[in-house]
Amino acid sequence: MMRAICLILFLVSVNVAAQTSSSQPDKPWVVFGADQGDAPVIFTGGYRLLGQLSNRSGSFQAKPPDFWRVELTPSMIIYGIPLTANLLLSSEQQSIQQTIDAFSISLDPDAVKRIIAQRAYREVENFAMSEAGWMLSEYDNIKDSLAQYDPQQLEQLDAIRQVEQMRDVANGNITNYEDVLTKLGVMSDVESVMAALPKVGVGTVFPSFTPLSLSGARIVGGNLEWNPGGTFYIHGVFGTTQRPLARVDSTRIDTTIYRTTDNSDFGRRLYGGRIGYGTLGGDHVMLTGVYTVDDKTSLTVTDTTSALTPQKNMLSTVDFRVELIPSTWTMEGEVGGSLTIGDLNAPQFGANTIPDFLLVLVDSNASSYVDWAAKLSTAVNVRSTGTRFTGSVRRIGAGYRALGVPNLRVDVLRFDVKLDQSLMKRQMTIGLFARQDRDNLIPIKRSTSTLLSIGATLGLNFRGLPYFRISYSPYVQESNASDPLLQYVNRTTMWNVAGGYAYRLSDLSASTNVTVARQDATTKDNLYDYAVTSANVSQTVGLVIPLSLTAGLGWIHQEAVQSASTTIITIDASASYLLSDVLSANGGLSVALDDTYGNRNGFFIGLNAHLGKLADIDLRAERTLFNERLTPAVLGGTYQETVGRLTISRSW
After folding, report:
1. DSSP character for 652?
2. pTM here?
């Protein structure tokens, strides 16, 4: 480790000396943005400041009417050393909720890789625009002649073609392209070392392993990810996913008030590791393990009716990805199992025939349960014929738990296929899809629910003619409950037709678009049947002066067995005007005329300013008036809402 640090410091010092001795007087020391050229210090990232003032909270929202947020994502590369920070501060932070504010700092080799990739892309663009640019399209015809008469030119041409492959096939991943990037002079020795370092983050991090193990969790701690040479891969994470939170909520039912602590949280820690062979975006096989445990002493639950209990979860998965035919056929999958202790305070198992150390090792008790999950998918993309097929199957057991994957849907078996075909030089597209979901995988419920959805799409986009798209998607939701009263079969059919055309009228640019949709639903005994038909026409016009106009007219008609039929007419109009090179103004209004429930009217005005590399400013004010005929104002009916919002942001 000390040798690696000494090597890095040595290379940095050599790079500093070389840049100092060879630098020109007019060469900047600091640049903002990777596209501004090379400099000892390259600053990238961005910021976003958001503030809102309103006279009311949005309907069915917990977000306060007035709030502010500060988001900073600066990234600096100082003589090749990449450092990245992330900061989020918000007035929405409350003591009765989990933490919103976040801060982290990381050693981020990906920042170096992104800058190197952008340099390489500029090199390709410069070569394509040079006198020798024609050689790229004639490579197969001239490579033999170049090999004989100008091997140096052929070497440069091959390097440019490899960078094109890195951009188009490897999606900018510089792994396995270091030699050619160094040969082109777009990657220094220091950057080569830095790009090979592990990615290390400390603070509030959001690591992602796989969809079945760890994804979308906020962790206050740290993580390390390393993929040297694109061969060996290791990723470790540890930290706190939730802090102890004592929250007592009151619920009124008729005249009785119930108090519950179910929305409280125990302190929870997570430890995870991933190790394997290959790269994430390419071929690989990896083993993942995640251990999550609540601190049962961090919270005292006195509510005897509460379902809140301290939990523990241990899981392990194996996932793979293989490209069976390069750039054409890929297959990937994952399989794993989990052991969950639903209540750490539940009685422990005991058996005279099993040694105590084995019972302690599995750490199980009367609330333990296990299950497994698996998914497999494949994709075929034949560019020459315009054919793309995807298919997947997913099975997540009712007892499978991954506490590091918020909102993971369990107890589901899903089959999903999709086929898209382009014809007539991609001017016609045809699509087919089907999906089936089924639950009750280990029959513990009184019924099994299935959902079958199929559909087809057709798109026509002939050059010089209006475009046309149509989709048809029926689906059936069914339950086979043993009790006839609980059985149901819901059938829904949806049609959607859209068309439009972009054209010019003298000096005006314009486009017209039309959309028509229909949805029909039938339910058991026709008790909740409904049908909705909608049509919308929109028109945009761009004038010679820097003014653009948009207008729309819509019609919605709904019929339902359990409610009165209603018709809504909508009218929308907006305009945008460019006042100068840095300032533009916009505004608009909307009207919704509902013959049953009431009318809704609103308007907005806004200003946008582009202040070079300093800031992009968006100032917007909205006013909405809703006249609800059937719902009283105290229950969220009639209201008047005014919202002012200011956003200041910039990215480099």
Report:
1. -
2. 0.81
CB of 574 within 8 A of CB of 586? yes
> How many residues does this entry show for the chain?
652
Torsion of CA 419, 424, 429, 431, to 10 degrees: -30
Query: What distance in Å separates the CA atoms of residue 163 and residue 447, rounded to the nearest whole number?
Result: 57
Domain contains 528: no
* Total number of domains in the chain: 1
Q: Report the C-alpha gap between 342 and 599 in whole angstroms.
A: 50
> Which two three-digit tokens encode residue 532?
């909705």
**pLDDT of the residue at 249:** 73
Residue 439 exposure: Cα atoms within 13 Å on the Cβ side: 17
Alpha helices by DSSP H, listed for 332-411, are 356-362
- Give the closest residue to 618 by CA, choosing from 639, 643, 579, 645: 645
Taking each helix axis as running N to C, give the angle between helix 151-168 and helix 109-129, from 0 to 180 degrees, rounded to the nearest 10. 130
Exposed e or buried b per residue across 88-117, where buried means at least 16 C-beta atoms within 10 angstroms of its C-beta: beeeeeeeeeeeeebebebbbbebbbbbbb
**Contact indicator for 580, 587 with CB cutoff of 8 Å:** no
Question: What domain range includes position 172?
Answer: 10-192
Q: Which residues contact 222 (CB under 8 A, 6 or more apart)?
A: 200, 201, 202, 203, 205, 237, 238, 239
Tokens 């991090």 sit at which residue?
205
Q: Which residues pair with 469 in a beta bridge?
A: 459, 498
Q: Is 139 exposed, middle or buried (0-12, 13-18, 19+ CB in 10 A)?
A: middle
Q: Radius of gyration over alpha carbons of the chain, in Å?
A: 30
Residue labelled with tokens 């006839």: 484
C-alpha distances in Å from residue 482, one per residue of 259, 447, 479, 574: 36, 7, 9, 55
Q: Cα(first)–Cα(last) distance of the chain, in Å? A: 34
Q: Is residue 540 part of a domain?
A: no
Residues 6+ apart with CB under 8 A from 444: 398
Q: What is the 3-state secondary structure (H, E, C) of 531-544?
A: EEEEEEEEEEEECC
| Residue 530 covered by a domain | no
Grouping H, G, I as helix, E, B as strand and the rest as coil, residue 644 is strand
Please check whether residue 510 lies inside any domain of the structure. no
Whole-angstrom distance, CA of residue 213 vs CA of residue 225: 16
Please give the C-alpha separations between residue 514 and each of 103, 252, 469, 498, 645, in angstroms, as whole numbers: 47, 48, 11, 6, 32
3-state helix, strand, coil split of the chain in percent (to 5) is 15, 50, 30
- d(CA 204, CA 100) in angstroms, rounded, equals 10
334 close to 230: Cβ distance less than 8 angstroms: no
List, run by run, the mean pLDDT of 10-residue segments along the chain (652 residues): 39 42 57 67 87 84 86 82 88 80 87 81 82 79 80 82 77 76 80 82 93 94 90 95 82 65 86 94 94 90 78 95 91 95 82 61 77 96 92 96 92 96 92 96 88 96 94 94 85 96 89 97 89 96 91 96 90 95 95 89 95 91 87 73 94 80
Q: What tokens does 103 get?
A: 């801060």
Q: Between 151-168 and 139-149, two packed helices, what is the crossing angle to 10 degrees?
A: 140
Asked if 530 and 559 touch (Cβ cutoff 8 Å), the reply is: yes
Token readout for 491 is: 């059938």
In the prediction, which pLDDT does 361 show? 60
Query: Residues 305, 392: contact at Cβ < 8 Å?
Result: no
Look up residue 458 and give its two tokens.
Answer: 């057709």
Closest CA to 300 of 365, 341, 247, 340: 247
The amino acid that residue 234 corresponds to is I
Q: In angstroms, rounded to a whole number, what is the distance separating the alpha carbons of residues 361 and 339?
A: 13
